[in-house]
Amino acid sequence: xxxxxxxxxxxxxxxxFDGTLSKSRINSSGGSEAGLSVNDYIDVxxxxxxxxxxxxxxxxxxxxISSLGSAxxxxxxxxxxxxxxxxxxxxxxxxxIVPAGCIFSVASGQTLTVAGVFERQHGTFSSGSGxxxxxxxxxxxxxxxxxxxxxxxxxxxxxxxxxxxxxSGYVAGQMFSFKAxxxxxxxxxxxxxxxxxxxxxxxxxxxTLDALEAGDIIxxxxxxxxxxxxxxxxxxxxxxxxxxxxxTTDNVYTKTETWKQGSDVASATSLPIDVDGNFFDVTGxxxxxxxxxxxxxxxxxxxxxGACTLTHHxxxxxxxxxxxxxxxxxxxxxxxxxxxxxxxxxxxxxxxAVFSSVTAGKLNATGDTSAGDDAAIGFTSTEGLILTGxxxxxxxTIKNDADTVVAKxxxxxxxxxxxxxxxxxxxxxxxxxAAAAATALGQPTYAKADLASATNMTIPTTGNYFDVTGxxTIVTMAVAANRHFFLQFDAALTLTHDGTDISLxxxxxxxxxxxxxxEFYSIATNDVVCLNYSKADGTAVxxxxxxxxxxxxxxxxxxxxxxxxxxxxxSDHSATFTTTHGSNLxxxxxxxxxxxxxxxxxxxxxxxALxSGYVAGTQYFVRDITSTTMKLSTSFGGSVQAISxxxxxxxxxxxxINGMSAGPITISEDTVTIPAGSTWNII
Length: 683
Hints:
Blueprint (H helix, E strand, L loop, with lengths): L10 H5 L7 E4 L5 E4 L5 E3 H5 L9 H11 L4 E4 L3 E5 L3 E3 L3 E5 L3 E5 L4 E4 L3 E3 L5 E2 L3 E4 L3 E3 L6 E5 L6 E4 L13 E5 L8 E5 L4 E7 L5 E3 L10 E6 L4 E4 L29 E2 L3 E2 L7 E5 L6 E2 L7 E6 L4 E2 L6 E2 L6 E2 L5 E8 L2 E8 L5 E5 L2 E4 L9 E6 L3 E6 L4 E6 L5 E6 L5 E3 L15 H7 L7 E5 L3 E3 L6 E5 L6 E3 L5 E6 L4 E2 L6 E2 L6 E2 L5 E8 L2 E8 L21 E3 L9 E3 L3 E7 L4 E3 L12 E10 L10 E4 L7 E3 L14 E8 L9 E3 L3 E3 L10
């Protein structure tokens, strides 16, 4: 204990108080009495009951006794009625200080026993049908230097009390205690029994006796002061180990605040964190459904050393997004006890979190997601932004600000379902399915739908492939412009050619047969052109009048002599050529053969051999054409076909018409000769 000089007590002296000092003094009769020295007391309600008058119970008293243990200390009881519902004994190491107006209401059949000094300031201190037993020394404090208590009736900063024992004057060493009516806002005074207002001052940490500052006295606080002969000195509350001093001012930390790390905690159904510390390593893999209580308002930081499951509960353990969490080694969570035994996770960070930072409102993802993620955003350098989720109906759902679904991916599928129209560029009308999108773009989807034949047959706005049923002659078609569609006929009917509404091959009407397929394109509204017509029996579409050709055998199509004026060779474009093998060029082919880049062609030879690299009967594509040269490729836009040597004899290049595969067709006066292996449609 520090040395007391000239009766002055410094804060450093109070800080050294160990709760065991006992002193003697002269009493009012001139004799001697022993007791605890100044400040050897603690306010039971403020420290152990949170200042709440609802806590004026034997439970609060029991908590104080348990917390203080064997320390020699005074217990100051606030004015008002303390409810003693169960028998209670206050050990002899405590001095019980009972101001005027403090009443112990003991329930019937119960006993309050005070084994130590019972220092009271009024004759009446008990009520109820139970018993109060004072087995220690009963002291009725009445001397001029005794402690006096009253309830403040003044205003903030101007405190006024009228103790029941009516002191006749101020005496150095007098102790007064009062329940403050208001918090102070600055320098304050106390007027006792109208003896005159005296300043209330306090010792600062530098040893200076200064005026009070705002918040030094709190509304309803039990304030204790000692008169030093000039003014009152404020006696501060003493915070013992395990107790709490409550203030209404903000705590400003001028040094580093460190949370104590407690011992490792093994994972369990109820996580046992009700031990010393605020930071714990959680070991093990047991499922956790709740945390043990540490006290309302407590924060803890948990670092997980392995994989265990934190189970979400609407009260016991509230987790982000209302979903369970499977921990991983290195994960850290911050939890808050918002009600007794009820915890809320206010922050959870995975060791391998995909978010490296939040900058200017942007989540910067740096890692990939996993198949088991409930909802995750990730990033990789190859895949870019990654969205991963798993739900009972959808894995991913995209909504607008009206909470309306815009797009979704059903659980376990790879299909993006657009639930509202998606505008298609360049004149599209919008679509919500792939089929409708293809239709809007004029692309076939080839999904069959039946369509009844009619004189004016309406082509549906959705779909591009239709089975035409019935036998009604079709004269016109009602269809929007720029539609590409197919008609498969299920029976014989007449498809009427008029050159305006319907344009058919050979400018002639066609009698259909079951299985025939026709390809159409609408060049304008209700104006269609047949691009191709394939008969189910494999025969060609022929003219219906005028002595047209008939189907022969052995590659011969016979026709009437009147239709053929002279011998001709049907090879469309053809030319003889030489080659420059070093440049893979076809040269000296003439400038009037009408070949263009992209033409399908074949080559042939007579009287010798083709250059090595060219094969007769192989389909090639023209590329890099000039007025006198060209190159060939085996695919459209593909690489140049290389050749070596220039061959011998006469080389011929000719266009591959409609699938020609074995050379040109020749027509004499009455005979059309087709090379074996070729397929021709002669119209």
